[in-house]
Amino acid sequence: MHRTARSNRIRLVAIGLGLAILYFTFSPWSFGYDSESVRLTQFMNSKETGTPAVVKPSSFNWSSVASQHVSETLIVPWNKHARLPRVQYVFDKESNEEAQSREYRRTQVRNVFQRDWQAYRKFAWMKDALMPMTGSYRDQFSGWAATLVDSLDTLWIMGLKAEFDEAVAAVAGIDFGNSTSTTVNTFETNIRYLGGLLSAYDLSKRPILLAKAIELGDLLHLAFNTENGMPVDFIDFQRAKTGEKLLVEPTVVSASPGTLSLEMTRLSQITGNPKYYTAVSGVMSLFYRNQNRTNIPGLWPTYVSMSRKDVTTGSQFTLAGSADSLYEYLPKMHGLLQGAEPMYDTMSRGFLDAANEHMLFRPMLPGEDDILISGNANANDDGKTSLDPESEHLACYLGGAYALGGKILQRPDDIETGAKLTKGCMYAYKSMASGVGPERWNMVACESRTNCKWNEETWVKERQKRPEWKEHLPRGFTTVKDPRYILRPEAIESVFILYRITGRRQYQDAAWDMFQAVRNATHTQYASGSVPDVTIPIDTSKNEDYMESFWLAETLKYFYLAFSPPDLISLDDYVLNTEAHPFLIPR
Ligand SMILES: *[C@@H]1O[C@H](CO)[C@@H](O)[C@H](O)[C@H]1NC(C)=O
Ligand SMILES: *[C@@H]1O[C@H](CO)[C@@H](O)[C@H](O)[C@H]1NC(C)=O
Ligand SMILES: *[C@@H]1O[C@H](CO)[C@@H](O)[C@H](O)[C@H]1NC(C)=O
Ligand SMILES: *[C@@H]1O[C@H](CO)[C@@H](O)[C@H](O)[C@H]1NC(C)=O
Question: Transmembrane stretches, by residue range (predicted)?
Fold first, then answer.
């Protein structure tokens, strides 16, 4: 079957080549913008790589829609003399024995990936997500093959060349002019699809990927075609085609408008077209100007209003889900621009300090482990802040964010904070009966980070306040409010970053324990499925029949990279978006 499909495609190349040249000649980036990376000659060369290079333009040309919101064009800032501090540890040469064990581990990760990819290929090809237990599929992200696009760079990184070529050829036929839903989710489309295309392009330089990234970038750019230039959370697909302004929602979670910057900036860097960077700079300046005017200066409330350009009103604060990647992207933008736009430096320092003071806590634990957990906070207008010691898997990115921020901003204390936060999530994994961390939990916060003695009575008193407490839960936890594991990457993401930054082997060993537990718990009929309860021994027949695209895009990629030689996707060369897609830092 594989062979037949391939030779059909190769025959199509001949027919497609004529059409494709026409398309490339008339596409907006073949003239007008000076972009070294996209040239017709390079496109022709791609034949040598064996990729069937048939680009089928989408049924609607998004670049033909003129945005009615006009603002002064900003050029992507660049200081070619700037050089941020080195991020990665300088690793010693490993022994043969170490190399063997590391290679064994990464082969195990790749085996899981290959099984799951083959299942996607067989049962859900060109669909958004695989149902791993029944061998069916779901389209929940406009039907543009989310899992396929999200997995491109992982295929490349794992050296699965034939699979990569086949997937790139399939990308050529995706129609961004049609959608299975009437509205397009701006955030998800940006991080999964645009992020996926850009990183696969950065790694492979296949022009098909850039052509499709531009089509999609032009669609996403229309999210900013609004009265005040702020983006909509959901793009009304038909209205966007007419060029009429879209209506900005009154209230959104802060991560939605706050997680467009890396992708839009990278697209401007690659194409030389500044419009994407210009659009996203408007939102980020709004966050910047108001960072110190909130109830917790340095942080923004969980809910913000893009229609009123209000990012200050509100008393709920979190660094976890709903807000997470707004914060994650601040030091990463500093990295991608190599410090050329100072507002990302200021915003990064502001949030790292404020979060450390108001949101992080040391939990009271029977072993008195010196770890940190990220909680939530409520802050009234009078400046009174109260900590809610509840955390979730989504908050586990924060250890990596502190360590990365600490490294590039030269704040060594933040690297240690990042290490303790990462150990907090490692602790949540190893405490559970399955060895896999839960989705949401509560602990008891100590007043002091240096003096945090275990007190059984305090724990009993605290857990009695919690209707969600259960007899079988590990000591130290007062709830596991949501006991699922839905294939999330954030814990291994931070473990990977801490390993690359500190060089400490304990992170690699922790990654291996986590991998074995996660593999066992998620292994179902055809591929990997979510776990309903990690607090009890696993029965995988009870798993959920759904495989999120981020399992292949992020979770297995981070596991694989944790066991790879450290120069594979070096953090000195790449910035990873919140969907684990590496973007090349231009030099
Ligand atoms: C899409 O529209 C732009 C702007 O009108 C035009 O320059 C470009 O040639 C069009 N692309 C295609 C493939 O028709
Ligand atoms: C759009 O997709 C639907 C199915 O999702 C299909 O019926 C329709 O023909 C497509 N339209 C175009 C213009 O391709
Ligand atoms: C916010 O406050 C910090 C600390 O005082 C300061 O360094 C930073 O420049 C301020 N940010 C803005 C946008 O004024
Ligand atoms: C995973 O399963 C294998 C085989 O069933 C078993 O040997 C191993 O101990 C399990 N590992 C974990 C971490 O549960």
Answer: 12-31
Q: Per this entry, what is the length of the chain?
A: 587
State the pTM of this model.
0.91
Q: Atom of ligand 4 at shortest distance to CA of 434? A: 14
Cα separation, 465 vs 293, in Å, equals 35
pLDDT at 22 over 80: no
Selected catalytic residue, list 150, 215, 324, 390: 324
Please name the residue whose Cα sits nearest to atom 8 of ligand 2: 178
| CA atoms of 501 and 40, how far apart (whole Å) | 39
Structure tokens at 214: 């531009």
CA distance 289 to 269: 25
The one-letter amino acid at 394: L
Residue 65 — φ and ψ, nearest 5°?
-85, 120
Return the number of other C-beta atoms located less than 10 Å from residue 73's C-beta. Answer: 10
Q: Go through 479-503 and write b for each residue having 16 or more CB atoms within 10 A of its CB, e for each that does not.
A: bbbbbbbbbbbbbbbbbbbbbbbbe
Ligand nearest to the CA of 144: 2
Structure tokens at 559: 């596991």
- Amino acid code (one letter) for 262: L
Residue 439 annotated among the catalytic residues of the structure: yes
| Domains of the chain with bracketed CATH | 61-342+497-584 (1.50.10.10)
Does the beta carbon of 27 lie inside 6 Å of ligand 1? yes
Calculate the average pLDDT of the chain: 92
Integer Cα distance of 391 and 467 in angstroms = 17
Residue 578 assigned ligand-binding role: yes
| CA pair distance 424, 445, nearest whole angstrom | 13
Whose alpha carbon is nearest atom 2 of ligand 2? 178
**Which ligand does the CA of 62 lie closest to?**
1
DSSP H or E segment with residue 567: none
Tens-digit pLDDT profile for residues 277-324: 999 999 999 999 999 999 999 999 999 999 999 999 999 999 999 999
**Distance separating alpha carbons of residues 437 and 447, to the nearest angstrom:** 25
Please name every residue paired with 534 in a beta bridge, in sequence order, or none if there are none: none
- Confirm if 544 and 529 have CB atoms less than 8 A apart: yes
Task: Tell how strand 360-361 and strand 373-374 pair up.
Answer: antiparallel
Where does residue 520 rank: exposed (0-12), middle (13-18), buried (19+ CB within 10 A)? middle
Q: One of 218, 439, 493, 579 is an active-site residue; which one?
A: 439
DSSP 427-491: HHHHHSTTSS--SEEEEPBPS-SS-----HHHHHHHHHT-TT--TTSPTTEEEEEE--B-S--HH
Active site residue 490: yes
Catalytic status, residue 554: no
pLDDT in tens, 311-351: 999 999 999 999 999 999 999 999 999 999 999 999 999 99
| Cβ proximity of 391 and 443 under 8 Å | yes
Model confidence pLDDT, tens digit, residues 107-166: 999 999 999 999 999 999 999 999 999 999 999 999 999 999 999 999 999 999 999 999
d(CA 19, CA 203): 26
**326 burial level (CB within 10 Å; 0-12, 13-18, 19+):** buried
